[in-house]
Amino acid sequence: MATLADYSEETRAEVKQVREIVASLHDQLLKWNLVVWTAGNVSQRLKTADLMVIKPSGLRYEYLTPASMVVCDLDGNVVDGAASPSSDTASHCYIYRHMPDVYGVVHTHSTYATAWAATGKNIPCALTMMGDEFGGEVPVGPFRLIGSEAIGEGVVETLKKYPKSPAVLMQNHGPFTIGKDAESAVKAAAMTEEVAHTVWAAQMLGGVIPIPQQDIDKLNDRYQNVYGQH
Amino acid sequence: MATLADYSEETRAEVKQVREIVASLHDQLLKWNLVVWTAGNVSQRLKTADLMVIKPSGLRYEYLTPASMVVCDLDGNVVDGAASPSSDTASHCYIYRHMPDVYGVVHTHSTYATAWAATGKNIPCALTMMGDEFGGEVPVGPFRLIGSEAIGEGVVETLKKYPKSPAVLMQNHGPFTIGKDAESAVKAAAMTEEVAHTVWAAQMLGGVIPIPQQDIDKLNDRYQNVYGQH
Amino acid sequence: MATLADYSEETRAEVKQVREIVASLHDQLLKWNLVVWTAGNVSQRLKTADLMVIKPSGLRYEYLTPASMVVCDLDGNVVDGAASPSSDTASHCYIYRHMPDVYGVVHTHSTYATAWAATGKNIPCALTMMGDEFGGEVPVGPFRLIGSEAIGEGVVETLKKYPKSPAVLMQNHGPFTIGKDAESAVKAAAMTEEVAHTVWAAQMLGGVIPIPQQDIDKLNDRYQNVYGQH
Amino acid sequence: MATLADYSEETRAEVKQVREIVASLHDQLLKWNLVVWTAGNVSQRLKTADLMVIKPSGLRYEYLTPASMVVCDLDGNVVDGAASPSSDTASHCYIYRHMPDVYGVVHTHSTYATAWAATGKNIPCALTMMGDEFGGEVPVGPFRLIGSEAIGEGVVETLKKYPKSPAVLMQNHGPFTIGKDAESAVKAAAMTEEVAHTVWAAQMLGGVIPIPQQDIDKLNDRYQNVYGQH
To answer: What are the record's GO terms for cellular component (chains A, B, C, D) (predicted)?
Structure first.
C-alpha cells in the first residue's frame, strides 16, 4: 500500500493544508445545524495528486482535528491516518472519479432536506436564492443502500440530469452536495437545508408561487457568471 | 471617482463610527438566526454626507470587520473599501434616495418571513407586537429580479402603501426592513422573522383571531409615540 | 417621591441581591429562546418591603446589568434606577397587589406559546409534564390593550379560574407566568414554551391522546407536594 | 445503609470516573437541544459493582458537576451523594435489573419525540439512519404515572417487543433510551429526536415513502455488525 512518503513534497504540503480546511469546515456543519452527533462528512480532493482528505468514521465533532482527518486515494484506500475513513468514503470516491470538476463533497442528514428526501418529492423552485444556487428545483435521487459506491452512482446519475444543481437529496437518506472545493460544497449543504426549510414552511401555508423558468435562468446566469465574489 | 479624502473630517469620523456600527449589527443577524452563510446585509446612511456604509459581497460572517465594510455614494459608486459592496447595493441606494427619513436598511432571507414571501400572502395582524411594530399586516411586495434597483423600487412602492410598516416581504425573495438607523432596521428584521414564525405556527392550529383595526391603531400610536425608550 | 434611602438597611441589602437575581434570570430567557431583541421581562417582589425589581424598558439584553434594573413600589413608582421600568410594569404591579403569594412574574412573546395565544385556544393537557407543572391545560386569557394594568387584571382573573396553572396566554399577545420567586416564574415561562411547542407538533400529526383528569390530578399532587427538590 | 466505603478500591475508582462521564454527558443533552430547564437525566451502571451514577433531582444544568452526581444501588438506595437522585431513579433501576446488557439509560422530554409520544403513534421507518440505529420504527410504550418503577416496566416491556430499538417513546411522556454505556444511550436520545423531527416534517408534506423491511434489515445488520467504529 502507498503511504504519504510515496508522494511529492508538494502533495504532502497540500495534504497538510487540506487537513486543516476539511477539519475546520466540519465546524460549519455544526454552526448551521446540519448534523447531529457524528453524522455528516466533508471531503476535499487534492489538486496535486489523486487523493482526498475526509472525516474519520464515528468520531464526535469535538474530537475532530486536522490530524484526525484521513487521506485516501480515489478508490478509498487509506494513504494516511490513524482511524478508518467515513463509511461514506466509497461514494465520495465515486463522485470524484466520475465528475472531474468536483473537488469538494459533503453529506449530511440535515432535518428539512432529509424530510423532503423521505417523501421522494423534489423541492420546487420558489425562491430567488434557489434560482441563484440551484438553477431550479432541488432533485431527489434514487433509494440506495449504504456501504458501497451505489450511493455515489445515484448521486452522479441524478446530478447529470440536473446539471445546475450542486445538491441531490438521496431518497430516504439525505443530501449530498458538490463544489469546486470543500467550502463550496459546505455552502451548498447549508443553502440546501435553508431552502428545504423555507419551502417546507411555505407549503404548510397552502403552497408556493412558482418562479417562471425564464426568470430562474436569468437569476442563475447572473449569480454563477456575474456575481463573482460570492 | 471620489475617495474619502474628498470628504470633510467630520464625515471621515462618521464613516469610522458607522463602519463599527454596521459591522457589529451583522452579529445581530447571526444571533437572531436571520441569515445563513453569507446571506443578508445591513447598511446605514451617513448624516454628514450622501454616503452609506454596507457589507461587502460574499464574505463569511466570521471575517466581517469594520475595515471590510464598504463606503458607497447613493448611486452605489464605491468611495472607500477593498471589496465589492453587497450585490443588493443598488436597492439600498434606491431606498435611501426615495425615502429621505430612512437611514438604515436590512435585507435577509430569514426562514419564516421568506416562507410567507414565497406564498405571496401578507402576514395577518394577529399579535399585539405586530400592532406595535408594524401597525397592521406585514405586506408582500412584487416579484423582482436581483441585481438592479428594481428590487428597491418594489420595496419603496410597497412601503408607501403601508406607511406604518418598516418591513416588506419581496415575493419569492425575502424581507427588506428600514429604520431611522441601521439598528432600528435590524430590530425590524428580527421582529419580522419572529411574527412570521409565530403567526405561521398559529395558522397551522387552524387560524388566528384577527385584532380589530381600531385596536391595532391604538397599539401602534402608543408604541410609536408614547413608549419612547424602545 | 420615596428613594431607596427611605428604606431600611435590610431592604437596601435585599434590593442589591434581587437586582443580581433578576438581571441574571434575563440570561435564562435568552438561553431558552424565549425572547427576541428587547422583548420579555422578569420581576421579583421583595420580602422586606412593598417593592419590586424589574427590567428597564427597551434595553438590549447584552446591556442588562444588576445596576440597570429598576426598583419600583407596587404602584409602579420608580424608587431607584436610571432608566424607565418595563412598559409592562403596571401589570406586574397589579399581579403582586392581587396575588399575595406571588413573588415573581415573567412576560415573554415566546413563539409557540404566543401562537396558541393568537388562536384563542387553551393548550390541551396531553403531557405528563403538563400535569406536573400546570395541573391541566394552559389557559388563554382575554384580549387586552397594552400600557395600563388591564393586562394584569386579565392575568389575575384567568389564573383564579385555573388555580394550578402558573401560566396564562394573553390572547393575541403572549404568556405571563408567576411563581414563588422570579426563578420559579422563569422556569414556568420555559416550560410553557416547551409544552406549547410539543403539543403544537403533536396536533400537526393528527391530534393528541388526552390524559384523564384523575391522572392529571395524581401527577400534579405528586409533583407539587412530594417532589420537593424541583 | 451502605456507603462508598463499603465498596472496593476498584469500585471507588470507577465511581470517580463514571461521575465525570455522566456529568459531562448532560452537556450533550443541552448541546443537542434535548432538554429544558432541569428536565432530562442520564445514568450509567458500573462494571465492578451493582451501582449506578445518576443526575441529582431538580438541579439546573449550569450547576451539574461530577461531585453533584448521585450514586445509588440498583434498588435506588443512595450510596453516595449530597442531593436526592432524579425522580426517575426507580425506572432507571428497573431497566438495569431487567436488561443485564444495558449499562446506560437516558430520559428526556425532547420536543418532537415527545410530540409523537403524545399521539400514541410509532415513528414510521422512512430514513436509512432509522434502519441503522433503530432497525425499524421507533415504538410508543404504555401510559404510566411518574414516581414508581411502573415507567421502567413499560420501557422494558416495549423494548422486548422491539429488540433492535434502543428507544421507546412513553405515551404522553417522552423518550427513554438505552445503550452499552451512557454515551451510547445519549447518542440514541439525540438520534431519536432527530428522526422524530425529520419524519414529522416529512409527514407534513403528505407522507413518507416507507423503506421495505428487507432493506431495513440489511441496513441494521451492516451498521450494528460491520460499521465498527461508530
So the answer is: cytosol
